[in-house]
Amino acid sequence: MTPAALIFDVDGTLAETEETHRQAFNETFAAEGLGWHWTREAYRRLLRTTGGKERIRAWLAETGETVPDVAALHAAKTRRYVQILQTGGLRLREGVAELIDAARASGLRVAVATTTSRPNVEALCQCCWGSPGDAVFDVIAAGDEVAAKKPAPDVYLLALHRLGLPASNALALEDSRNGVLSARGAGLEVLVTPSVYTEGEAFDGALVLGSLRHDALPEGLRGLFSARA
């Protein structure tokens, strides 16, 4: 059965953003004179903790370092991330734009349920679509709007509430184990396209795809493209 809505994760699902996030963290650390540098290996480990502020706190707990204000440091990192995306260069993952276009043309609603903040969603939409988030997605539920971030189900439950749909009428699209746990906890079926930082994770209870190209999709979603033709 074709769902009534598709709910997308952002980082790693819409685009391979995590390297850009890592760049923004490291440039912010340097600008603040902290002397920290997150390697790819360190960042892969830190990604097990969802949320940028939470990731910084995990690093502090690991290293024994301190900062006066984690929220202020993270806000500076967010500003730097937005600045990087304003220069362009970030591209959507294969099949994403076409799937969203086909969904809209077929009358499906499209939403976001993400651990990242709303400014980061807006920056990605401007970079990749040249439009504000509300022009791309019917609903945006962001991590700074819920009490608990992924793998808790809160942000997916918020997206479903705003869509006015039960979980049985929507489909989640994710790239990470924490995302799968979040979506499944909200009662959603899940499609996973692993990203460069999540390859090899366990995705129990989800259908794993190599990409979101229409020929790689399950039959119910491939039908969106037929309906559009």
From TrEMBL:
SUPFAM superfamilies: HAD-like. It holds the Pfam family Hydrolase. It comes from the Bacteria. GO terms for molecular function: hydrolase activity. PANTHER family: CBBY-LIKE PROTEIN, XYLULOSE-1,5-BISPHOSPHATE (XUBP) PHOSPHATASE. This is Haloacid dehalogenase superfamily protein.
